[in-house]
Amino acid sequence: MYSQFVIVQGNSSGKSLIRGGHHPAIRAARPRRGRIRPSFRPGKSGRPCLNRAPVLETVMSPTRRTYLTALATTTVLTVAGCSSSESPTETPAVTTTPGVSEPTTDGTTDRPETDTRGGDLPSYADRAAYTEESLSLEATEECSLGATLTLPEGDGAVPGVVIVHGSGPNDRDGTVGPLQPYRDLAVGLASRGIAVLRYDKRTFACQQSIDPTAFTIDDVVTEDVLTAVSRLREQPRVDREDIVVVGHSLGGALAPRVASRDGGLAGIALLAANARPLPDLIVDQTRYALERDGELTDAERRRLEQTRALAERLRTADIGDEEVLAGGGEPFWRSLAEYDQVETATAIETPILLAQGERDRQVTVADDLSRWRDTLGDRTDVRIHTYPGLNHYFVDGAGALETGGQPEDGFVAESLIADLADWIEGVVEAA
């Protein structure tokens, strides 16, 4: 779920991401000069918190402002999610993702279309087997979400998939460093006769028009997934009874919630879905990152204790009215604390696929898949797959927690694509 850590200007290896300019937003828009003074104010609890917009002390170009905004946001404890804008769940800061245009001032995404019919694609992508269409999903009165429908060639009806992002302000491709896992899923499944709708997450596309102190998990995830499902059902070539939601990481954890709300999904696939509460993962991933190079230093022990204190506040939603902690305010963390993904999954009759990479250091076989398996493993409509060597993004190689930076380059493994496609075909035939 999370990939690397930026804790008071230090990354998981103890080297400053700011000084080295390794943060993607900084690397994408590094200016020559500029000053910044982050503005702090007390929250309701009296604890300091960072203002949503840092105080920029000079007139500057948009590029320089992007750089300095990213610089300010990395001075607070943040945990990287599944997008390259590196944030725990949602972030109010405007940052850039390599290869993706930043949001415009009106809250829409000025983003060039991803060309998945050419360029550097996985070998299992059959460029002649699908077409792509740009769509727009309504999110708020001020903002819509850019989307791409990858549709198999032909005239007959096909099943459809909606991809649900992991944590962080993800674009529709799930871009993180060199990886685009959601694009890989889309072209892989479309090459096998399955339509896929993927879209820019609200916290990526609508950063200018949402209030991080006020939104809930439904505001920034569930409602947009349901909108995407409805839009996919409207497509003439897609069988409206054969819609499957494929959620990755936090998106997988929320897939049972979506299925419960929708009531008509043919199935849900949970890819590297956390069974544990998010605050627990923040602590465990911080510990892993700090211990990766050996014994903890005194400074690293203090940092780990600070992370535990933060996690406890997130777990209990001990957050002031105007505070934003780890990307969300009190309503967000309260709504997440009140949701139990495993319990919700047991209460629905929707077929479920659980997929987990054995090299995943963010969501693990031992701590997360084990709970899913213990609770759901006896159900005949639940299938479980594990993949040796695959990381959190289902790529064969080291993930970001292992490297201490960006994940190793690669594509989503064809074995996952094949298993997912076979399972989808099975559940729609049985429906």
UniProtKB/TrEMBL annotation:
Residues 81-124 are annotated as: Disordered. InterPro entries: AB_hydrolase_1 (IPR000073), AB_hydrolase_Est10 (IPR053145), AB_hydrolase_fold (IPR029058). This is Alpha/beta fold hydrolase. It holds the Pfam family Abhydrolase_6. Keywords: Hydrolase. Residues 161-395 form the AB hydrolase-1 domain. It comes from the Archaea. Residues 81-107 have a biased composition (Polar residues). GO terms for molecular function: carboxylic ester hydrolase activity. Signal peptide: none annotated. Residues 108-118 have a biased composition (Basic and acidic residues).
